[in-house]
Specification:
- The chain is an alpha+beta fold.
- It has a single domain, classed as Hotdog Thioesterase (Thiol Ester Dehydrase, Chain A).
- The chain contains 10 helices and 12 strands.
- The strands form 2 sheets. It has a 10-stranded antiparallel β-sheet with strand order 1-3-4-5-2-9-12-11-10-6.
- The longest helix is centred in the last third of the chain and has 16 residues.
- The radius of gyration is 22 Å and the shape is globular.
- The chain starts with a helix and ends in a 25-residue tail after the last strand.
- The relative contact order is 0.16.
Length: 406
């Protein structure tokens, strides 16, 4: 009898058909708080940046910017060659993942705060580490009681240079309480009029024409209150959520998935509708019946997916010669199947710091019901006509003095 057969004979696998109904207890909270400051081993998927993985990521987030996909175009830009979308580190790891502590208590990623230091180019290999930053307990209309977990992720290239840092935060909710509260039970599928659908289609098809590209946007030409060209993402479909998964290379199947489930049984279930096949408890992003088990009215998008959309809103506006320095995005409402996000922004501040010409942006995504689902902000380094301004290629030297927990 093999070692694996012996283990199976001694102990039945703990993977259940129903998701674990974990509880937020004082004992569990104490164990999680004891982890503050601890370095976590993150999930890690794609490591190498290549022309194919860079373009595939752009495809998976719906980004049409030639700076991140057209090898001939980029030869004649300031960067001189293909670079990755600023949110490309998501192919390696999603900040704030909730694998640590509170077993059986459902996690929803709800916020990311990114600072960017260097471009990622073909040939770069990305690595990262996580550090637990904070734990907070709050009241929730969704589940009555929630825990916020904060983790900081640092991404480095193969030369051990930091390319980005991100604070990610996740809410943890008791599944039974989320169902019983039923905060979103009144939401019904939205029926678009032919005129609304035509407007959405036109905005999506016209997005490429609004990309600033090689037309330099100078700091001196920007005014406070100026609005960014709107982009649209939706109506959300299964193809959108699966496309994002493919863009990030997050694929584990069959025995590979089963081995992971054996290590973390409370994070996995057996889908009896699929003959007992193994699924991660995040399958609600792709399966409506399970989404309803955790209090969500239908399959829903991923937070990192929404973060990338807001990143594209900014990079479309700023042009090839600018640098996205900071991006903060929060998910305040679920974006479920059939919802459309109208991503918008405006300039709120124009200033100089450490010799850099900067603008701050207010961002938001509003759904077809007129609800703000996704507030955010960004800071962009723009080229300046002032000869005494520091060269934009030295953008990594700018310190934004960001607090650790916000």
């Amino acid at each position: 009898m093999s070692t694996t057969e012996t283990k199976l004979a001694e102990q039945e696998l703990e993977i259940r058909a129903e998701a674990e109904e974990g509880k937020i207890t004082e004992e569990a909270l104490a164990a999680v708080r004891a982890m503050i400051g601890i370095k976590l081993r993150p999930e890690q998927y794609l490591r190498d940046a290549t022309p194919d993985t860079i373009v595939n990521f752009s495809n998976g987030i719906g980004d049409l910017n030639p700076l991140y996909r057209n090898l001939e175009y980029v030869r004649w830009t300031r960067v001189g060659g293909l670079i990755a979308h600023p949110l490309f580190p998501l192919v390696h790891h999603w900040p704030g993942r909730s694998y640590w502590g509170l077993p059986g208590v459902h996690g929803f990623a709800v916020g990311n705060d990114w600072e960017f230091f260097r471009n990622i180019r073909p040939g770069d290999r990305i690595n990262c580490w996580n550090r637990v930053v904070d734990i907070q307990e709050k009241a929730s209309r969704f589940s009555g009681r929630l825990v916020l977990q904060f983790a900081e992720t640092t991404y480095v290239n193969l030369r051990d240079e930091i390319v980005a840092q991100a604070l990610g935060w996740t809410t943890r909710h008791e599944r039974s309480a989320s169902r019983e509260k039923g905060k979103y039970k009144e939401i019904v599928s939205y029926e678009y009029s032919p005129e609304e659908m035509r407007e959405i289609d036109l905005k999506a098809l016209m997005e490429e024409e609004q990309i600033r590209g090689a037309q330099t946007r100078y700091w001196e030409d920007v005014e406070e209150g100026e609005e960014l060209p709107e982009i649209v993402r939706g109506p959300l479909s299964l193809s959108d959520t699966m496309g994002f998964i493919a863009a990030c290379g997050r694929a584990r199947t069959h025995g590979v998935l089963l081995k992971e489930a054996v290590k973390h049984p409370k994070h996995y279930i057996r889908n009896l509708q699929a003959g007992g096949g193994i699924e991660y408890t995040g399958i609600g992003h792709h399966r409506e019946d399970f989404a309803r088990q955790v209090g969500v009215p239908g399959l829903y998008d991923y937070l990192p997916q929404r973060v990338a959309w807001m990143g594209s809103l900014v990079t479309n506006w700023m042009g090839d010669d600018a640098v996205l320095k900071r991006l903060r995005v929060e998910a305040r409402r679920f974006n479920v199947q059939g919802d459309t996000q109208f991503c918008r922004g405006r300039v709120t501040r124009r200033y100089k710091k450490d010799g850099f010409a900067l603008v701050d942006l207010h961002l938001e995504a509003v759904n077809q019901r007129g609800e703000t689902t996704t507030p955010g902000l960004a800071t962009v380094i723009l080229p300046s006509k002032d000869i005494h301004t520091r060269p934009i290629t030295d953008g990594a030297a700018l310190s934004l003095d960001l607090p650790v927990v916000r």
